[in-house]
Write a structure and sequence with these properties.
The protein has about 300 residues and is α/β, with parallel strands linked by helices. The radius of gyration is 18 Å and the shape is globular. It has one domain: TIM Barrel, CATH 3.20.20.140. It starts with 13 loop residues before the first strand and ends in a 19-residue tail after the last helix. Helix content is about 35%, strand content about 10%. It has an 8-stranded parallel sheet with strand order 1-2-3-4-5-6-7-8. It contains 13 helices and 8 strands. The longest helix is centred in the C-terminal third of the chain and has 15 residues.
Length: about 300
């Protein structure tokens, strides 16, 4: 197991994707209609054990992660109260991103006002198996239009959809689109097939409003930590987008069996493949800037990422 030591020169580190959840309760019920649409491997992770905010903060503190983008799990559907409760209990540690789809009542208003909520950062669009409407459909266009008008970032899980991103990015040029997991499929395909899609990702760098998250990246490696075979691929992405549009993240709650949180960070924090300036951006600075999420001045000082409109 890798021994994790904090960096000699402290930099602000932001994990661009984590989840937290607990067993279903009256206060925080699950949405079974969403859970049933998830691949069995993902759904089983949610069912087998809680991954609470308390556990996650302990993990973050142990390796020097200052803050994390908390993606409300799909198992809660469009009810993001569990994630907001975690953010409220740990002020400044979490920014919340909530999944929404066209079937959600008042979806346009919910998108427009998402950042009015304390700790609200952005909206996620993820097309699960069985989704009736294509990403190019009018319902999703309504979400994108509302997000652009209200300056709300869209986190897009673009599994098999990279070819659709140019039309979205060009039709909504003032909408920040953040592609999850290098824009690649998370399941149902081999590593080589997924990596073969990288030219389609790097081609999107011509759109200034498209950014990318290096999340769940170690699973693309065929080697043990520190995953050296990843770097030819990562350099292609970073060279295309530049470090000011690339964010590091882990999705550690879904990948804790394959690697430790320390390994998920230190393959990038400890590498010689990046300059210190590049690390400062990719490991936190880019997320703070693009998501307009400043560092909390104290642990108890609320950070409202955007004023009410």
């Amino acid at each position: 197991m890798v021994q994790c030591a904090l960096a000699e020169v402290a930099i602000d580190i932001v994990d661009a994707q984590v989840h937290t959840w607990d067993a279903p309760s009256e206060t925080f019920p699950w949405a079974p209609e969403y859970l049933q649409r998830l691949p069995s491997s993902i759904a089983s992770t949610f069912r087998e054990a809680p991954r609470t905010a308390d556990q996650l903060v302990c993990m973050m503190d142990a390796i020097g992660v200052d803050a994390a983008v908390l993606i409300s799990p799909t198992l809660y559907g469009a009810n993001h109260s569990y994630s907001f409760d975690a953010a409220n209990r740990y002020p400044g540690r979490f920014g919340v991103v909530g999944p929404l789809d066209p079937g959600v009542p008042d979806v346009e208003d919910r998108v427009r006002t998402f950042r009015h909520q304390q700790w609200g950062i952005g909206v996620r669009v993820i097309l699960l198996p069985g989704t009736p409407e294509p990403i190019t459909g009018p319902g999703y266009r309504t979400i994108f239009a509302a997000a652009e008008k209200a300056d709300v970032p869209i986190f897009l899980t673009a599994m098999g959809l990279l070819h659709e991103v140019p039309s979205i990015a060009s039709q909504f040029p003032n909408l920040l689109i953040v592609l999850d997991h290098l824009g690649l499929s998370m399941f149902g395909s081999e590593k080589t097939e997924r990596l073969a899609m990288l030219p389609h990702l790097t081609a999107l760098a011509v759109f200034d409003n498209v950014a990318v998250k290096c999340t769940a990246t170690p699973e693309l490696s065929s080697e043990a930590y520190p995953y050296r075979d990843l770097w030819p691929h990562l350099h292609r992405v970073i060279d295309a987008f530049g470090p000011r549009r690339v964010m590091w993240g882990t999705n550690i709650n879904q990948h804790y069996r394959e690697l430790t949180y320390c390994e998920a960070l230190d393959y990038m924090r400890r590498t010689d493949e990046l300059s210190e300036a590049e690390k400062e951006l990719i490991l936190g600075g880019t997320a703070r800037t693009l998501l307009r999420w400043p560092i909390a001045t104290t642990a108890s000082t609320p950070v409202n990422a955007a004023p009410p409109r």
